[in-house]
């Protein structure tokens, strides 16, 4: 009986050990740099209004954009169409407070701020938070597969 207890324990613990991520599968500095570069490209291309290049550079083919107060945009063409409905932006800042992952998947959480410039209207300051799921694409570049964000400001007219 005493010999079977260690065997039973090892059989019970084996699945737990197998499910634990090894340190070698954690994100590397190169992975983090690629994710940060994609964030920087998003800011640069969004403020330039170059949404075609933004979507190609920053989102995987089957990505989804989950904006507040609007439908989910599925795929690059729908994401580009959704982004084109936004007024121009200036002073856009993305601050990633957390990037965690392993292998070819990661998530990021952070805050954003910008100023929208609606045609014929006064500038609108906006700030909020985001949650992004990242995937290392076929070319080794980290791109967003799911992108969700929401404002910290109260709903107007509600």
Quick rundown:
With 158 residues, the chain is an alpha+beta fold. It contains four helices and six strands, in the order H-H-H-E-E-H-E-E-E-E.
Largest beta-sheet details: 6 strands, mixed
Domain module tally = 1
Average pLDDT figure = 87
CATH topology: Nuclear Transport Factor 2, Chain: A
Query: pLDDT under 50 segments (min length 5)?
Result: 3-23
> Distance between the terminal alpha carbons, to the nearest Å?
69 Å
- How many strands in all? 6
- The class by helix and strand makeup works out as alpha+beta
Helix content: 25-40%
- The amount of beta strand, in percent, is 35-45%
- The helix count comes to 4
Query: How does CATH name the architecture?
Result: Roll
Shape: globular
Furnish the topology, listing elements before pairings.
Blueprint: H1 4-19, H2 29-48, H3 51-58, E1 59-66, E2 73-74, H4 76-83, E3 89-102, E4 105-116, E5 124-136, E6 142-151
Parallel strand pairs: 1-6
Antiparallel strand pairs: 1-2, 3-4, 4-5, 5-6
Helix pairs in contact: 2-3, 3-4
């Amino acid at each position: 009986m005493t010999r079977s207890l260690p065997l039973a324990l090892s059989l019970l613990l084996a699945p737990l050990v197998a499910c634990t991520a090894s340190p070698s599968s954690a994100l590397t500095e190169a992975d983090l740099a690629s994710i940060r570069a994609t964030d920087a490209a998003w800011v640069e291309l969004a403020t330039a209004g170059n949404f075609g290049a933004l979507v190609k550079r920053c989102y995987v083919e089957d990505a989804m954009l989950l904006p507040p107060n609007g439908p989910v945009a599925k795929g690059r063409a729908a994401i580009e169409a959704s982004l084109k409905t936004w007024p121009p932006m200036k002073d856009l800042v993305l601050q990633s407070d957390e990037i965690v992952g392993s292998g070819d998947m990661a998530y990021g959480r952070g805050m954003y701020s910008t100023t929208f410039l609606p045609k014929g209207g006064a500038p609108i300051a906006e700030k909020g938070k985001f949650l992004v799921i990242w995937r290392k694409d076929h070319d080794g570049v980290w791109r967003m597969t799911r992108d969700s964000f929401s404002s910290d400001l109260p709903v107007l007219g509600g």
